[in-house]
Design a protein that fits this description.
This protein has about 400 residues and is an alpha/beta fold. The protein folds into 2 domains: about 5-200, Tubulin/FtsZ, GTPase domain (Rossmann fold); about 230-345, Tubulin/FtsZ, C-terminal domain (60s Ribosomal Protein L30, Chain: A, 2-Layer Sandwich). It has helices at about 10-25, 40-45, 60-65, 70-80, 85-90, 110-125, 145-160, 180-200, 215-225, 245-250, 260-280, 305-320, 350-380; strands at about 5-10, 30-40, 55, 100-105, 130-135, 165-170, 230-235, 290-300, 325-330, 335-345. Strand 5, helix 7 (about 145-160) and strand 6 (about 165-170) form a beta-alpha-beta unit. Helix 1 (about 10-25) crosses helix 6, helix 7 packs across helix 13 (about 350-380) and helix 11 packs parallel to helix 12. The radius of gyration is 24 Å and the shape is globular. The protein starts with a strand and ends in an 11-residue tail after the last helix. Its main location: cytoplasm. It comes from Halodesulfurarchaeum formicicum. One of its GO terms (molecular function) is GTP binding. Keywords: Cell cycle, Cell division, Cell shape, Cytoplasm, GTP-binding, Nucleotide-binding. It is found in: Cytoplasm.
């Protein structure tokens, strides 16, 4: 699937940079065009892979290149005011060569949180291609303002895109891990999962051809119903046929009959599918009630078992209760792993979102109370007791 990716804000730009690095490393061909948008000049300068001509600094008349300081209302205003500057970069995208737009943003900050929904609305008004979003939720320990920003941005962003794929930082940060180290690892996790999903159907240099290849239309149809999506992932290293207990030894038949090997391979792929769907999702949720789902099993084509994939697809159908579960393979000739990716679209039983909204309401009420108390305290401070002083104007 070929995408025009737009990273907005600091995290959005960094994740976009990671996607370009992944594209180079894997020859996946998913990033047709890449644009980074920010109000902070330093963040744009720190990018390594996004072409300099595709780095768009907005809000110079308002914030002078210093960012919006986690003020997502200001971020939204600036995106509205400078949308023509962003469109100038988008005009260089060969839209006839892309399957969809993908806007990437962290929802807890200022520029991405405020600007991503504005950009999505703009793109939807002009283009017929689907517009998707990757929204990154802040961790619980990042503070009330980030929680409030994320809840408000999430609510707006999901209504402006054709589908919002969510990644919850809180589910992925490790205790004791440095913030920078944690985010670098999280960004790698994001790119790995979404890279395999969107890479499905693209021809790689290996020339491998699968038995039932997932193409871009199946991804688009799975995301077409809108709402919120989450992705599961599980992988196993392919070992040499001479080693014991590895995935490859089960597939290639060392020490057993062809029938036994086929059964083992089927079971191993089915197990991977279960781990992907029931393990750590990008947005933890109950998978029952999922509206639509897509299964992609990636790896060297000779190690992809059609029966295992079909059995995994049927299991996913049973678990979600959905009648729209698509599935297939994604051959990657030089891969050292077999991986299963499950896209669950239209999920609704998401405790984290309800928790986020509740904390955001509480944060907003606390902030309103603090503001009122502060205004009253300031009034007491500056007024003289007998009201004898006269103001200058």
């Amino acid at each position: 699937m070929k995408l025009a990716m737009i990273g907005i804000g600091q995290a959005g730009g960094k994740i976009l940079d990671k996607f370009l690095e992944y594209d180079e490393r894997t020859d996946s061909g998913i990033v047709r065009s890449a644009i980074a948008v920010n109000t902070a000049k330093a963040d744009l300068m720190g990018l390594e892979k996004v072409p300099e001509d595709n780095r768009v600094l907005i809000g110079q008349s308002r914030v002078k290149g210093h960012g919006v300081g986690a003020d997502n209302e200001l971020g939204a205003e600036i995106a509205e005011e400078d949308i023509d500057e962003i469109q100038g970069a988008i005009d260089n995208i060969p839209v006839h060569e892309v399957d969809a737009f993908l806007i990437i943003a962290a929802l807890g900050g200022g520029t991405g949180s405020g600007g991503a929904p504005v950009l999505a609305k703009h793109l939807k008004r002009i283009y017929t291609e689907p517009v998707y979003g990757i929204g990154v939720l802040p961790g619980k320990d990042e503070g009330g303002i980030y929680t409030l920003n994320a809840a408000r941005s999430f609510q707006t962003f999901v209504s402006e895109v054709d589908n919002l794929l969510v990644f919850d930082n809180d589910a992925w940060r490790k205790s004791g891990e440095s913030i920078q180290g944690g985010y670098d690892e999280i960004n790698e996790e994001i790119v790995t999962r979404f890279g395999i999903l969107f890479g499905a159907g693209e021809v790689t240099g290996s020339g491998d051809v699968g038995e039932s290849v997932v193409d871009s239309s199946e991804i688009i149809n799975t995301l077409a119903g809108g709402g919120v999506s989450t992705i599961g992932y599980a992988s196993e290293t392919v070992e040499n046929s001479g080693s014991s207990g590895g995935f490859l030894s089960k597939i290639t038949g060392s020490g057993g009959s062809e029938t036994e090997d086929s059964a083992n391979t089927t079971n191993r792929i089915t197990s991977l599918v279960r781990k992907a769907a029931l393990g750590r999702l990008t947005l933890p949720c109950e998978i029952e009630g999922t509206e639509r789902a897509l299964l992609v099993v990636a790896g060297p084509s000779s190690y992809l078992n059609r029966k295992g994939i079909e059995r995994g697809r049927k299991w996913l159908e049973e678990q979600t209760g959905s009648m729209e579960v698509r599935g297939g393979d994604y051959p990657v000739g030089d891969s050292s792993q077999v991986a299963a990716v499950t896209l669950l679209s239209g999920v609704t039983n998401v405790p984290r979102i309800k928790e986020l909204q509740g904390k955001a309401v509480e944060a907003q009420e606390n902030m309103d109370d603090i503001r009122q108390e502060s205004e009253a305290a300031l009034q007491d401070l500056v007024e003289d007791e007998d009201d004898e002083l006269e103001p200058l104007f």
